[in-house]
């Protein structure tokens, strides 16, 4: 299909080139040097016709350019959706089993938590407050292989969305909550080196977690408004009124 389209565009451009060349040649003639009124009239009419044709062709060309641009955008969006779907499958098939393995290892080693991490925005900067579970440090170190294996896979997954190659909204609607819950648990380990090596994980987590918090706030607002509408008010009137 692409080959046929390219050939069609090629052959359709030939008349445009020929008309342009004809107009250029016609413009090289100085009509005043030709006393023959008939010849001058022919050139003038030809110049008028070719100019009109070129104007029409230019309009058609702009329309085709607009169509081609819109088509390119649609194709890019389609590819972004497709890649997002593929990455969601990768997350469920490859990353989730690795996260499950970490959970199993934590239960096996008696690890209760990796710690607690808070991510704060201050003066348009991202600040990380990390409290690592140093009491169970040796136990956590013993499952470093499993943790790094999962984090490397999650980082490779996250870069598709932080770089905007894949559509982030499509993936968020599918695995946004699962992703954020898992990363929230692993953040103390990720942030031990201020997130170096796993920056895309943190970026995607911040983006998706912000959406979750906004959705929660909106739901709470709607719930409060619904309660206010249901609550009936009782008026107390004083005697004699």
Q: What does this molecule look like?
A:
Strands 1-2 form a two-stranded antiparallel sheet. The protein contains six helices and two strands; from the N terminus they run ααββαααα. The protein folds into two domains: 2-76; 80-228, no CATH class. 16% of the residues are buried. The chain is mostly helical. Strand 1 (115-122) and strand 2 (125-132) form a beta hairpin. The radius of gyration is 34 Å and the shape is elongated. Mean pLDDT is 78; it is low at 1-7.
Give structural attributes:
241 residues; disordered N terminus; two-stranded antiparallel sheet; elongated; mainly alpha; single chain
Spell out the blueprint of helices and strands:
Layout: H1 2-28, H2 37-109, E1 115-122, E2 125-132, H3 137-141, H4 144-162, H5 168-190, H6 199-230
Antiparallel strand pairs: 1-2
Helix pairs in contact: 1-2, 2-4, 2-5, 4-6, 5-6
Q: What's the number of extended β-strand segments?
A: 2
Structural domain count: 2
Global shape: elongated
Helix content: over 70%
Strand order of the largest sheet: 1-2
Number of helices: 6
Task: Return the structural class.
Answer: mainly alpha
Pattern of helices and strands: HHEEHHHH
Strand content: 5-15%
Ends distance: 86 Å
Uncertain residue segments:
1-7
Mean pLDDT: 78
């Amino acid at each position: 299909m692409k080959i046929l389209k390219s050939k069609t565009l090629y052959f359709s451009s030939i008349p445009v080139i020929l008309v342009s060349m004809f107009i250029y040649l016609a413009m090289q003639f100085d009509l005043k040097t030709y006393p023959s009124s008939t010849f001058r009239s022919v050139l003038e009419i030809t110049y008028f016709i070719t100019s009109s044709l070129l104007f029409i062709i230019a309009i058609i060309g702009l329309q085709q350019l607009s169509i081609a641009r819109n088509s390119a955008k649609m194709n890019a969006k389609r590819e972004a959706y497709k890649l997002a779907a593929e990455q969601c499958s990768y997350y469920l098939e490859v990353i989730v089993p690795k996260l499950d393995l970490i959970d199993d290892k934590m239960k096996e080693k008696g690890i209760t938590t990796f710690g607690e991490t808070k991510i704060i925005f201050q003066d348009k900067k991202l600040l990380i407050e990390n409290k690592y579970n140093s009491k169970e440090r040796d136990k956590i170190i013993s499952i470093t292989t499993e943790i790094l294996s999962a984090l490397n896979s999650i980082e490779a997954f996250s870069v598709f969305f932080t770089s905007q190659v894949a559509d982030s909204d499509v993936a968020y609607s599918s695995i946004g909550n699962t992703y954020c819950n898992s990363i929230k648990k692993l953040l103390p380990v990720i942030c031990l080196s201020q997130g170096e090596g796993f920056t895309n994980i943190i970026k995607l987590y911040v983006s998706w977690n912000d959406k979750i918090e906004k959705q929660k706030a909106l739901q709470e607002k709607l719930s409060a408004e619904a309660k206010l509408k249901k609550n009936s008010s009782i008026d107390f009137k004083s005697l004699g009124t």
